[in-house]
Amino acid sequence: MDKLIEVLQQLVNGVSLGSIYALIALGYTMVYGVLRFINFAHGDIYMLGAYSGFLLAPLFAHTFKFGEFDTFTPENTLFILSGAGLIMVLSMMICATIGVLIERIAYRPLRERPRLNVLITAIGVSLFLQNMTQYRLGADPKAFPQLIPVYVIEGLGNLTILTSQLAIIVATIILLIILRFVVMKTKIGLAMRALSFNPTACSIMGVNNDVVISFTFALGSALAAAAGILVSMDSPSINPLMGNLPGIKAFVAAVLGGIGNISGAALGGLIIGILETFVVAIGFPQWRDGIAFAVLIVILLFKPTGILGRVEREKV
Amino acid sequence: MSRSLLNLVFALVLCASISFFGENFIASNFAYYYDILISIGVNIILATSLNLVNGYTGQFSLGHAGFMAVGAYASASWSNHLDPIIFGIVNGSGNPVATNAAMFVSMLFAGAMAAIAGFAVGVPSLRLKGDYLAIVTLGFGEIIRVAILNLDFLGASRGLSVPGTYTNLFWTYGSVVLCIYVVLSLVHSTYGRGFLTVRDDEVAAEAMGINTTKYKVAAFVVAAFFAGVAGALYAHFKAFLTPEGFNFFRSVDVVVIVILGGMGSTIGVVFAAVLLTILPEALRGLAHTEFVPAAYQVLLENRLILYSLLLIILMLTRPQGLFGDGTAFKKWLGRSRAD
After folding, report:
1. Vertex B308, ends B307 and B311: CA angle to 5°?
2. Which of A25, A217, B55, B112 could form a disulfide with A254 if both were Cys (CB 3.0 to 4.6 A apart)?
3. A116–B138: do the CB atoms touch at under 8 Å?
4. Closest chain A residue to B251, measured at CA
5. Total domain count for chain B?
6. What is the interface pTM, i.e. ipTM, of the complex?
């Protein structure tokens, strides 16, 4: 029974970590879907999401009494959640704008050039965001303000689940449902899918590809920003390089699920998160950052299209 | 003896004589510049070797620092454990013949170990190109770093001290000359045209019966070998190694050099290596003069901000690098003459 609880515990930890990877991976996979290129700077958008939350929270600290509650009670729950939600939505909007700007300034002029050029530019953008943040806000880790009270949820026996973990999982589910709605039920979502299917035909049908691409960047960046805020609720220490490893792991997740495939990205994120948690749990904590790369190499060797990806033939 | 081989021998003799007559003078009177001189040499080796993969073969490796780390740690371990037995060198001091022989052997060992690592990376990455390859090589670089961090006999996070600073101008610039010679001869030989075909059109190359796989692995192995040699030089110059010295940003440094110089232009890459090694030093010097307001000092001291802007602006305005693949340069010369 203890073993079962232990496994269940790690599963919960893995799912909450995996939700973060899933949210970031969605940005990679959507951008890949419409532009066929890997946005190296995506991990840094996640970092910027956390930083915009860090900068926004003091502005609303007084109104929403951040850090003044110790527990959720029936009276204050809605109040706390609306405060945290407001910060999250504002950060998402800021990062969506940044994402669109990056695409407009750095990537769009290169759209007809070889993919390698765009890749190099993306690395440049990533380094620029990291180092500018470091330069403007300092390289030292910052304490993220407490948006929701974090404590162990009672009444679950030996299972230790933090409120922040629950918040991550619930928020991710809500965001995934919204995303699913946007992609499957709206006109712009239809345009996104059409664009990823065939850009030329899509523009012939009267779709403005540039607008759709901008929208995709906005959507992906917003999700990454949400991930940044959520992860900072759970582990409230942020630094300018925090986006590097999660960014790469989320990319691995996107590849694992089949790059270009939205459900695949969410699935891949969960798998990577759970895998990583279990690697730590069975006693190899120092290898936790290596496992994602190992998965990537194995995946690319045996099934480069990922779990849910479709095979694309290379045309001459 | 062919003309290029003659040039090689001549250049090596030149390096040897400069090292023999000038080494002590420069090292004792201009210690700071001596330091930069060695760093330039190491960067040239790293960049010219990476250029074989990223420039001539058209692949994209982001893990060159990993191979350098393998070389550095291999040569350091060799010197730590085997030099006392083979050459009778204790605590890094011995007669010049013994130390130089030890340096040569440890460099070869470093290169060989790095080449093995290069082979290990090259084989699985054959099936990948572009973005995927970049991420996988990045991943390999990180795995090497994480592995070193976890291996106690390599000093883990404490770092590893290297006995004896055997690196001198001869070994550094001798390796530079050799590296440039090997890369150029490879690319300009009948065999080496294969590298260019892989870059220009892989499908067409395959249709013409070129074994693209073999060329990609060859490029990786040769590049890794020289990265390992550069690592050995670095190890025996700094005398102390930490895994953090070989992180992702070290790889980016080399990539920036290759891109600035122009992918597939050895001469351009050599110039870029010299330029980008001196530039951060010069900017650091400039940052502390009275002309620069205090607020901007950090901006000038942080080479990564500069590099990132350089990458973006280069890609937007001049993706072929300062020198391009040489043909653009020649065309420009020709046009200006025609005007």
Report:
1. 85
2. A25
3. no
4. A123
5. 1
6. 0.81
